[in-house]
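Incident log, structure service

09:12 report received: a user says their structure output differs between two submissions of the same chain.
09:20 pulled the input from the user's history:
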Amino acid sequence: MSPVKAVLFDRDGTLVHDVPYNADPDLVRPVEGAREALALLREHGVRTGVVTNQSGVARGLLTDADVRRVNHRVDELLGPFEVFAVCPHGPDDGCHCRKPQPGMVLWAAGRICTNPADLVLIGDIGADVEAARRAGAHGILVPNGQTRPEETAAADHVAPDLLTAVRAVLDGPPRGRVLADERPIQEAYTTGPGQGRDA
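09:34 re-ran on a clean worker, output below:
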């Protein structure tokens, strides 16, 4: 079993395509590789959870019920997740849960009885990896079009996509700054059909 006991994911922009202040479960679309990545973790006995800032609640653009419905859809498409942690506060509310604060990460770790040091948080912005660092967990940044270049430059660990990030933690906490996917090398040595790893 992997020394990493749990992986927490940011929701919007990491697990599912980001729809700003989404209140409609029908708009939930998993990112490429999300299902495969989660299946891989569960196959290895690694627990999974979601930690998501939802300031639309504080701004009056969403209700708690809207967030629950969207999370339920995420769980239907990609679950089951062991834990969902939601911060409904705005950036100026001074809460301890809104990423980059560590509150949600610590709460989720407690809910799934996992030491933060044995946990990885995967997200698409600097606040995600900073929340992991402050909680004593490991953070991996998977940049997308919304990720600022300085966030990528500052991250301890960066992966090109979700599946690469997940593969990198199956042997333990992430090592090295840029996490690589070895699949192209393996494919280069595959001589023909039926010669792959599962043959």
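09:41 both user submissions now match this output. Likely a transient worker issue. Closing.
09:42 reviewer note: The radius of gyration is 17 Å. Confidence is low (pLDDT under 50) at residues 184-199.
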